[in-house]
Amino acid sequence: MAPRTHDTAADVDVLLVGGGIMSATLASLLGSLEPDWRIEIHERLDAVALESSNPWNNAGTGHAALCELNYTPQRPDGTVDVSKAVRINEQYELSRELWHHLAAAGRLPGAADAVSTTPHMTFVRGAADVEFLRRRWEALRAHPLFAEMEFTTDPAVIERWAPLLMAQRTDDEPVAATRATWGTDVDFGSLTRAMLTDATTRGARLHTSSEVTRLKRLRDGRWRVTVADRRWNGGPPRTVTARFVFVGAGGGALHLLQRARIKEIRGYAGFPISGQFLRTTRPEIVEQHRAKVYGKAAIGAPPMSVPHLDARVVDGGRALMFGPYAGWSMKFLKRGSWTDLLRSVRPGNLVPMLAVGLRNVDLLTYLVREVTASDTARLRSLRAYMPSAHPRDWELVTAGQRVQVIKRGKGGGVLEFGTELVASADGSIAGLLGASPGASTAVATMLDLLDRCFPEHAETWRPRLHQMMPSLGGAEWDAAMELHQLVDDGTLTGGH
User: Which keywords does this Swiss-Prot/TrEMBL entry list (predicted)?
Assistant: First the structure.
């Protein structure tokens, strides 16, 4: 996609749909690689980072597989598979490298507190789970990325690491915990705003209250994009002609890719899951817990519903959150429509949806139980991790909406809990579906997009990408990862 002379001011090289971390990351990368390209970003709401990238709509965990048990499944023979954990850790390190590069270059204004060093812990109870955690730790620490992870079954050590886990705990069942002191908490809202500010400073155009409603491929391979003005005094819809379109609209991506009528989206559907957290900002509680503590998910629960007690830093302020408590809604976005699910049904995805529904009765049962849970039940879940919790100290907040991927597969359809990049065969349009680990691996996902949609630029871009992310390519990976110091030097952590 070489720069060209445009017939009208409306023509752009790249059009990004959605003002979240994914579009911000792609805008940052392309703005660095091709500063002469015309880039437009369209966000349907009146500000960016208000949906999934909003810090209160996600857990803020820098997902590096340091504490998340769902990334290290147990094999039938009892051994633990750590391959996915290693891959996710490597992907997150790419994000850290890019953020460090941008911060060092002064390109993240106002985001000094966006990434905070926060230990990542896993906490389990019961003999069977203690043994599993031990095996997980032994398998992980054999890899250089996890070599410094700590493990203990001593309640006194756990209390020293995270006092609230053990305070007033009266049962005598076995407990165990692992700790990685180099984990992070991320304010993806602050990070998104900073990256988009940098992108607009470098020439990109950001339009808020601007909703993409239609995508039509032209004969010359470009896309005619219809955009509605959602302001109260907005004008008529306008059209923009783009050579490449990225749909980073969170739960709204499925609808837009379906409207684009690319064959690659056929068979895809979405399963929406919402969530809630208990939150406290009481200083006397928050100051006692400076870690992200993940546990084991309930039977039938999706990976995004793994319980965790999290220290948070949002806009420079500290808080503590516990959850998530899963819910269900037919909306694909927190500020979406109740008809979202129905409008996504197509003849090509009906069979996968029905197959997934029939084979995931345990998930449906879990969701019904969560939706109907009482305040007492929610408090009971919290006290399994913080026995001293009192209801007067906590408020219930609604988190963001997630849309899990349903696609064709064995038995008619499969439910995926990761993220999936869907791109047209000619590379002129791509979109991102799914949820976790999502924002944490935004850089790796967008690098995948560059490889798939811009292969003709691979050789030209590689030296610049390597400069921004030294470990990209693998040759220097182990050496670059030994110190885990990309954000720990204070450049981006703000001293936390």
Answer: FAD, Flavoprotein, Oxidoreductase, Tricarboxylic acid cycle
